[in-house]
Amino acid sequence: MPVHLKYVLVTPARNEEAFIEGTIRSVIAQSILPAKWIIVSDGSTDRTDDIVKQYAIQHDWIELVRMPEHRDRQFAAKANCFKAGYDRLKSLEFDLIGNLDADITFEPDYYAFLWESLRKTPNLA
Fold first, then answer.
1. Where are the strands (E) in 1-125, listed by range?
2. DSSP H/E element including 50
3. How is residue 122 annotated by DSSP?
4. pLDDT value at position 109?
5. Start-to-end Cα distance in the chain
6. Cα(53)–Cα(57) distance, rounded to whole angstroms?
7. pLDDT (tens digit, 0 to 9) for every residue of the chain, 125 residues total?
8. Which helix (H) or strand (E) holds 27?
9. Which helix or strand (DSSP H or E) is residue 83 part of?
10. Per residue in 9-38, is it b (16+ CB within 10 Å) or e — as a string?
11. What SS3 class is residue 38?
12. I want to staple 46 with a disulfide (CB 3.0 to 4.6 A). Which of 17, 62, 82, 97 is the partner?
C-alpha cells in the first residue's frame, strides 16, 4: 500500500441544507485531505447547492455536480448520483474512493485512522 493516502470522495445529497455544512467542515478539518470531493446534488430545492458552492469557491478540490430536479423519490437516485460523481473522478489517480453521506460529522483524524487501519490490515476493505 502507498505510504501517503490519496483518496477521493463522492457525496450524493438531496435537500441536505440542515446538515451539509457540518459534513463539509468535517472533511475540511481532516488531517489528510481528499484529492478531490464531488458533491452531487440530486435536484435539491433548498440551499444545499448554495452552501456547497460557497465552500467549492474556497477549496478547489471540492466540486458540485448538479443533477436534474425531480419530484418523485427514485429508488436508484443515490446510486445514479454516485455514478455521476465517479464519472468526474475516473481520470484521476487515487488509492481509495469513499461514498460519504451528506448528513454526518466526524473527528479530524477520521480518514487518517481509516488509512492506518487499512495499512495494517490490507484485506480489511
1. 7-13, 36-42, 62-67, 96-99
2. helix 48-58
3. G
4. 96
5. 12
6. 6
7. 445 779 999 999 999 999 999 999 999 999 999 999 999 999 999 999 999 999 999 999 999 999 987 766 677 889 999 999 999 999 999 989 999 999 999 999 999 999 889 888 978 76
8. helix 20-28
9. helix 77-89
10. bbbbbbbbbebbbebbebbbebebebebbb
11. strand
12. 17
Give the pLDDT of residue 69. 78
101's grid cell: 453521506
Q: The C-alpha cell of 118 is what?
A: 487499512
Place of cell 430536479: 69
Opening angle at CA 41, ends 11 and 73, nearest 5: 100
What are the CA-CA distances from residue 116 to residues 10, 37, 71, 106, 119 (Å)? 21, 21, 42, 16, 5
